Amino acid sequence: MESGRLDWNTLLPFPVPDAASGTVADALIKEITESVAAEVDPERTDATGQLPDGLIDRLRDDGWFRLRNASALGGHELSDYDAFRLVERVCAVSQPVGQTLAIQNAVGAAALLAALPDGPLRAKVERRIAAGTVSAFAGTEPEGANNAWPGTTAVPTADGSAYLLSGEKVFTGNGDIADLLAVLATVPEDGHRRVGVFFVDTTDPGFRVRSRLEFMGSRGLHNAALTLDGVRVPREDALLGEPDAPRFPAPVGAIALLSALFFNAAPALAIARQCQEWSSAFVARRAVNGRPLGEYDQIQRILATTAAEVFAMDTVVRWSLLDSGLTDRWFERSVTKNLCTVTAWRIVDRTMSLLGGEGFETARSKQRRGAEPLPLERLFRDARGLRVSGNIDFLLDIQSARLLLAGRYAAAGAGAADDVPEPARPTGLGPANEAHLRAAEQGLRRFERVCRRLIAEHPRPDALFGRQETLRLLGRISAELFSMCAVLARVASDTDDGRQDLTDVHCTAVRHRLAGLWRRLTATGEPDYGAVSRSPAAHH
Ligand SMILES: Cc1cc2nc3c(=O)[nH]c(=O)nc-3n(C[C@H](O)[C@H](O)[C@H](O)COP(=O)(O)OP(=O)(O)OC[C@H]3O[C@@H](n4cnc5c(N)ncnc54)[C@H](O)[C@@H]3O)c2cc1C
Q1: Mean pLDDT of the chain
Q2: Where does the pLDDT of residue 524 fall: very low under 50, low under 70, confident under 90, or very high at 90 and above?
Q3: ipTM confidence
Q4: Is 510 exposed, middle or buried (0-12, 13-18, 19+ CB in 10 A)?
Q5: Is 213 a pocket residue for ligand 1 (Cβ < 6 Å)?
Q6: 387 alpha carbon to ligand 1 midpoint, in Å?
Q7: Cβ(137) to ligand 1 under 6 A?
Q8: Fewer CB within 10 A of the end CB, N or C, for the chain?
Q9: Å from CA of 393 to ligand 1 middle
Q10: Which residue ranges form the domains of the chain, and what is each CATH number?
Q11: Is the dihedral of CA 214, 215, 219, 225 positive or negative?
């Protein structure tokens, strides 16, 4: 994205999962999905908003909260990709249970361990993980997750041995059941502010669960509003960021990026695969006016588009997680959350149209009248939250573009020189995908030129970063281009002809979307949205 040149050598051969560790993971996936399916009735969980009694304890005691940890801590040592697959498969059985695993394994103590240097804090967290801990990450506050500085403060005690944490947290996954909580707070110290992550024992005085929260979807998921009222945290139990930089301490940011994939992209993929299966089955059993549904043009497009989108989601996840370390592929990971959750939303919405009344009808109601009780209505609600948790989709688009542009500013606007030869292209693509590949390359060059021009026109980054719609569109364009390149690279390494067709369908749709995005990016004479938003007409 930064150079405007696609070096296919970096994408090829497209990474494939390790067969040996995949077999171990498959056995674990079978074990956990069977166990969750036996214990959890997803409809009942949805209706009551409660997981079965004792389930969390059993998951913890059986080691499911240590998927990626070392065996010395009782962990399963799964790779990021295999752990993601496990969370995805559990989400297919029960989204709240899968997301509980995501919190524990991707942003709770078990994941944050990777950010802790050797020392007393690391040793303490390791002991808690080995003993079996339920943990949570409390970042969001009632004033909003997007404020640069947390409102919760961590004030050093007079003797400097500890911090006193005070503030309110909201939407904390597992916040009501955690024994160990990572809390984001602002530290005012020595005339500077820092963002810190503080490890709070929830039995400590001053910590209180204000209320358990419930959502439109993911019902049953533990989530809470919390109060910290002078909670004392020993100085060594804090991880502090740089002075006056409103950012997570490194590498907590990289962990947060990954956690958004586990918590959001994994259930999104589970929903998408489920919709694909239900769509095929529905079309296979229905006819209209004596003609099988699958013979109608619109229905064929629905089935093909959903299949291609599932393939694309699976592909961007593979690229984001396979053969990569904690801080690698930050751009791909930052856009993959949106690529998966927004695509899942399109798929579940399209599937609802396909299934008609049966799609909108609750599973309960279908059960009463003896129809197959497919819970598409529940998945629709579940899918919507995935575009909120881990941050709202349009803000993430803006953030991705901002990160890309910030890199360009830091490199003093240096982009690709126009005379650099085009890197060698992959072979093995059919004619349609060859054309898509050339379109992707053109898109990347155009993206680079537009970024270069924008930076030249805005010597001060803040002036450009204030143009949110421009950044949102650039974020969307960069994500679409990435998904196109990833799918083309995967299929170029693949001998399965069916995937050539799926790639063609995906890239065709991407190019239609890109045409609209470019048009909007270069639109002139737009309405004055600011004036309209402030006018009386916007408020009645
Ligand atoms: C199911 C679920 C689980 C969650 N789990 C956790 C968890 O475990 N830990 C945790 O810390 N949080 C968690 N969250 C919180 C989640 O991360 C936030 O809800 C999300 O990041 C959005 O933040 P917010 O709700 O505070 O909205 P806000 O940031 O307050 O946004 C409110 C509105 O303002 C807009 N806005 C905000 N900033 C800007 C800007 N710069 N420019 C333009 N518009 C802006 C937003 O787009 C939105 O429309 C969870 C949320 C859900 C739904």
Answers
A1: 95
A2: very high
A3: 0.99
A4: buried
A5: no
A6: 10
A7: yes
A8: C
A9: 10
A10: 18-130 (1.10.540.10), 135-240 (2.40.110.10)
A11: negative
